Amino acid sequence: MKKNVWSAVLMGACILPLAACTTAPKVQKDISAYQNHMPRSILVLPPVNDTPDTRAYYGYWSTVARPVAEAGYYVFPLSVVETMFKENGITNGHDAQAISPQKLQEIFGADAALYIRIKEYGSKYQVLQTTAIVAAEAKLVDLKTGTILWEGKQQAVQASDGGNNGLAGMLISAIVDQVANHLQDRAHMLSHQLNQLLFTPKRDPGVGLLYGPRSPNFQQDGVVK
């Protein structure tokens, strides 16, 4: 009986190291639809704000255009997009994103639209630190066919640091952070970092947008035909 127990233990000890060295295979994203419907222009739709923070709508939306444009696409000016929607009675992301892709293409003449949902936005106050957090989901849709070309999601977190000033110093630092966040929207500043992570083209195809026609890297990365 004892011999059988020790045999099982030794076998388990031999198996565990092998299991620890095993890594899950990387899932390759299918980018064929993106390649076949490569857009030249992108309409960044007003985002859907799933958070209780009312600052998220403009605080996040205003940070999207730059990284998308830097990826190599023409991005419709957000002020023009907002004015066009407001003149037609559309004042929020839910209503804007409910419009059919074909109708959006007819109104704006864009090749694709970027649909965004803000999942988290703002600062969480704790006893000794303040943590700013932003999380968003996005998908790029071809407006002529309604085909989803790309999807991604990202989260960015930034915690304040009380340094090595002891408990009193950390408490003071936390209070200062809370006051500062009321004066300036730290989540807005963090949104810039999140969008760089979310939209900037990466080495792995499908992680971030593909390089667009306006990029010097277009058709030079071995991905786009």
Would you mind describing this structure in some detail?
- The protein contains nine helices and six strands; from the N terminus they run H-H-E-E-H-H-E-H-H-H-E-E-E-H-H.
- With 225 residues, it is α/β, with parallel strands linked by helices.
- Strands 1, 2, 3, 4, 5 and 6 form a six-stranded mixed β-sheet that branches.
- Strand 4 and strand 5 (130-142) form a beta hairpin.
- The radius of gyration is 23 Å and the shape is globular.
- It starts with a helix and ends in a 26-residue tail after the last helix.
- Mean pLDDT is 82; it is low at 12-27.
What is the averaged pLDDT score? 82
Q: Report the total helices.
A: 9
Alpha carbon gyration radius: 23 Å
* Distance between the first and last residues' Cα: 65 Å
Tell me the helix content: 40-55%
Global outline: globular
Beta-strand fraction estimate: 15-25%
Poorly predicted ranges (pLDDT <50, ≥5 residues)? 12-27
Give structural attributes.
about 220 residues; alpha/beta; 6-stranded mixed β-sheet; 6 strands; about 20% strand
Topology:
Blueprint: H1 2-21, H2 32-36, E1 41-44, E2 48-49, H3 56-61, H4 65-70, E3 74-75, H5 78-87, H6 93-98, H7 101-108, E4 112-125, E5 130-142, E6 148-159, H8 166-183, H9 186-199
Parallel strand pairs: 1-3, 1-4, 2-4
Antiparallel strand pairs: 4-5, 5-6
